[in-house]
Amino acid sequence: MRQDFFTFLTILNEGFRWVFSVDLNYWWQGMEERGLAGFLTIGIVIVLAAILIGGFFLGVFRVLAYCMMAGFLVLVLLGRQTPSLATISVMVLYILATKTVGHSRHHYKVALQCGAILVLVGSIFLAVSYYVGIPTLEAAFGDVKELRARIQDTSLLDVMEEVVPEELQSPDMDGVYSGGSLESMPDGPQFTGDVAIHVELEEQPTDYVYWGRFIGNTYRGSYWEESGDPYLPENCLDYPSDSLSRLVAFCQEHPQDNIESANQFILETLASQTTYNLKVGEFPSDVDCAEYFFFDRKEGYCIHYATTAALMFRIYGIPAHYVTGYLIPADMFYLTEEGTYAADVPDSQAHAWIEIYQDGVGWVTIETTPPRVIEDNGGSSSQDLSALGENGGGSAVSAEGQSSEVQPSDPQTAVATAETETEQQSEFSGEPSIAAPSLLWIFPILLLCIVGMAVGLVLRREYLREKRKKKNSKELFQDLYEVMTVQGLDREADTSDMSFVEAVMKAFPWLNREEMTQVMRLVLDLSYGPKEETKEDTTRVRNFYKAFCQHIGEGLGGISRFTFYFVDAWI
């Protein structure tokens, strides 16, 4: 259940980041710095508890609780997780308990007894499931975790991938990691050493393979996002000048004549003025990551180097975008039985670099992490731009300092096939990773919008019904008149005398004439006579109103019935 909740929070954070450009992690850190996080936590717990407890007594809270659970399950499935047995069991028990109480709402003693029995039975069921059910599954199917992983391979996201047109799919939909976050962790990236991806190539590589998983061309201060085509040079020139004032001023103080000199200056400056450190600690939430790394902390790792370099290239007017993925050494590849060359790449090979656009050549991979670090960690240093310009081909300087022919970087053509074996932590996030935001988010967003509209309509209906309970006989009769006119009664009918009864019976011949006559006479006496309204009078008009609306509602169908109950909310 904890893993389900964590997946829910991670997906929710990515959704807010993609839709509203709000990073909930940094927002929450800001609340902690102001001392407000504790109060917010208590407030959230109180609201959730009120909704869940209210579900036992009020229909509107019950609907809201069901919608919350449905949204939770949808986001867990989108996060490529199979909801745990405990999660499903608790939800089912809650629904059964609220339904039991709901059917007995007029007999609270019976309702509470039924609820207590259900909770007791549910607790026994959970205990039996945990201590008997799981061992039984292990005996029948083997490792439960492996079984769950196989189930997750047919998750909702995979099904949606088959339905959604290819042009709407993100290039990073297999859920390895989002790749755009610049969050740093106090103790550095936590690598497991397990295989993160399986890569196959037709030919044996002679140099390091840069395999891109995410391309960011829009910088948001604490993360990168992909907006539009990241391979169009004109989409890779913008930068937030207001939040990068110091970096802009620094580049203006050191003008460069051409792309080669800019490349040399940027890489040498980063290597000489900053220190590579995986355990750089957390960055403040209210600062720009690139400026804080370059001018203040002066420590960071590949994501910080790549981000700062990409922004500096853009300031010099050179198109650049941010890339995350895996840096795979040539000696990691092995010959398969099919004659291809494969590599089982561990999560520790996760890396960040940039690509810049050079006229006549195209997109060129630039290794921005200092060469001494790359050499120590088995990577490759940057492209030799002057050689590219002269020869029109590509060359990359390996860790040993030897050049080898390469092609302009393309993360999709560099790898023939790639399969995600397991979801692992990477250098770019301290949390279990998820798929990059893509247009698939349209589906859960639409779902949440529909749920929000439904909850709003239910809340509005409950409000109007409560308000109607406080109305007197004349006000109820006015509502009855409105319903009747909508359903076909002539608006010219005179409500000031008994002739109104004939008009009503003509429009609704199924009505009981005697009851209609009594209600009309009562309303006229209250409006024009000395009669004082009693509780019995109000009850009579209200019962007639409810009976009329119920009969009308039962005779409607489709959208008309929905409008009658939830839009007009007549009953």
From TrEMBL:
<protein>
    <recommendedName>
        <fullName>Transglutaminase-like domain-containing protein</fullName>
    </recommendedName>
</protein>
<keyword id="KW-0472">Membrane</keyword>
<dbReference type="InterPro" id="IPR038765">
    <property type="entry name" value="Papain-like_cys_pep_sf"/>
</dbReference>
<feature type="compositionally biased region" description="Low complexity">
    <location>
        <begin position="412"/>
        <end position="425"/>
    </location>
</feature>
<feature type="transmembrane region" description="Helical">
    <location>
        <begin position="37"/>
        <end position="58"/>
    </location>
</feature>
<dbReference type="InterPro" id="IPR002931">
    <property type="entry name" value="Transglutaminase-like"/>
</dbReference>
<dbReference type="InterPro" id="IPR052901">
    <property type="entry name" value="Bact_TGase-like"/>
</dbReference>
<feature type="domain" description="Transglutaminase-like">
    <location>
        <begin position="294"/>
        <end position="370"/>
    </location>
</feature>
<keyword id="KW-0812">Transmembrane</keyword>
<feature type="region of interest" description="Disordered">
    <location>
        <begin position="372"/>
        <end position="430"/>
    </location>
</feature>
<feature type="compositionally biased region" description="Polar residues">
    <location>
        <begin position="400"/>
        <end position="411"/>
    </location>
</feature>
<feature type="transmembrane region" description="Helical">
    <location>
        <begin position="114"/>
        <end position="132"/>
    </location>
</feature>
<feature type="transmembrane region" description="Helical">
    <location>
        <begin position="85"/>
        <end position="102"/>
    </location>
</feature>
<feature type="transmembrane region" description="Helical">
    <location>
        <begin position="439"/>
        <end position="459"/>
    </location>
</feature>
<dbReference type="Pfam" id="PF01841">
    <property type="entry name" value="Transglut_core"/>
</dbReference>
<keyword id="KW-1133">Transmembrane helix</keyword>
